[in-house]
Here is the input.
Amino acid sequence: MKTSDSKYCKCLYFTANALARKIEKLALESWSRVSLSPSHAYLLMLVAEKPGIQPTSLSEHLQLQPSTITRLIEKLEGKKLLIRTYEGKITNVYPTPKGKDLLPRLHECLHEFYSRYSEILGKDESARLVQNMGKIADKLDV
Amino acid sequence: MKTSDSKYCKCLYFTANALARKIEKLALESWSRVSLSPSHAYLLMLVAEKPGIQPTSLSEHLQLQPSTITRLIEKLEGKKLLIRTYEGKITNVYPTPKGKDLLPRLHECLHEFYSRYSEILGKDESARLVQNMGKIADKLDV
DNA sequence: CCATTATAGTTGCATATACAAATACCGAAC
DNA sequence: GTTCGGTATTTGTATATGCAACTATAATGG
Here is the structure.
């Protein structure tokens, strides 16, 4: 059954979640080559780009709760892709050499993901959609 | 930080998830009065509307995996809001009297939810968004 | 009529995420 | 300088969800 055929398709909750899950699936496939979930991959890319970035900052960029960031970091630390250093109350997150080495492949995955959804949706339509959803998400901020 | 300020805000994965989480939050609040998550509430409303509906059908309407439907049903059964009957390999789901009694309040919650997001986003904009997201979700079906 | 295949549903297990509470540190005010 | 409110992070716990494997039933082809 198509999303738009559903009895409750006119409901924002329903539609937004169905869409997010489908996109998640696409993303999971794109990053499966590096054995990382999209969230982990994005976090790692952010850390590689801003070595020493703090969890709070990551939390803001990724719009995930601090506790979720901790869990993501723990897993990546377990895979030796990044490390934490602790100075007083603040924590800095750095990529390990192994993490840095993975970067090109992460960007390939990102590119593949972009390509896949652009192909399905069209470049313009997907760009519009992203922009539109971002705008809406901002409005929903309290 | 706003969703649209994020480094990866141009990424569909990221945007779709952030949006879905924010909407989820709004929905959770709207249905908190009946102590049900939005998913449970939608499932119950569907069952009340089509008594005897089968899990497979629910799975299609809600765009959730059959196993997830089983879990949702189990919980609602535990709350005595619906019951299952088994005939051979097929299962039928019916609302209990208690489940039926709850319907008006569920619809109130639904209405409240609509009102809240319409107020924030504007009636037209939210309607457009829902339609647009639904269309996109359909395209992403394999 | 049996063997195979397909369908409906459930169960076991894993994951991502959130919230609330706890911890640890910092800074400011008295 | 000590207490106290605020900030950064982690931990404990709960939830929704998915996938894969499993069971049970139905249907179909020989």
